[in-house]
Design brief:
Blueprint: H1 3-17, H2 24-72, E1 105-109, E2 116-120, H3 121-125, E3 130-131, E4 138-140, H4 143-147
Antiparallel strand pairs: 1-2, 3-4
Helix pairs in contact: 1-2
């Protein structure tokens, strides 16, 4: 029994000991004690639920921490764990190819939002419009618009 339930039980004992009878004040006090008892039940249930959620949140934080530790050791260019520093990647799987520019990508800054975007060289050679994924505005207009 929680602290609130103990206090309500004490109040119930006091009200019962006063021998108020069934007059309007006796009924009022008994209704108040009954209401306080229901509130105390709800508070106890909520405290238990909070404790359960706190344990779940701790478990989730531990799992996320483990995932973060695993991801910290991975090279961004190839997802291998042998690279200590992406700028100085010395693994066999990617060698000097850690930079996007060396992989056939062209770095473009969006004139609207300033976001750095990487486009494949094939995309740049196409006639279509290249849209910024951040602001959804054309970074490089379509070739037929340039002719106008």
């Amino acid at each position: 029994m929680g602290y609130n339930k103990e206090k309500v039980a004490y109040l119930r004992g006091v009200v019962d000991g006063m021998d108020l009878g069934n007059d309007k004040y006796g009924k009022l006090f008994k209704l108040i004690v009954d209401t306080l008892d229901e509130i105390a039940d709800t508070v106890d249930e909520n405290e238990e639920a909070i404790i359960d959620m706190d344990e779940c949140i701790d478990d989730i934080c531990d799992e996320l921490s483990d995932i973060d530790e695993c991801l910290d050791g991975l090279c961004e260019c190839c997802d291998c764990s042998s690279c200590d520093d992406d700028d100085d990647c010395d693994c066999d799987c990617c060698g000097d190819e850690c930079d996007f520019a060396d992989d056939g990508y062209v770095e473009v800054e969006c004139p609207h939002c300033g976001e750095t975007i990487y486009f494949d060289e094939d995309m740049l050679e196409s006639d279509g419009e290249l849209i910024c994924p951040n602001c959804n505005k054309p970074v490089i207009p379509a070739a037929d618009k340039l002719d106008e």
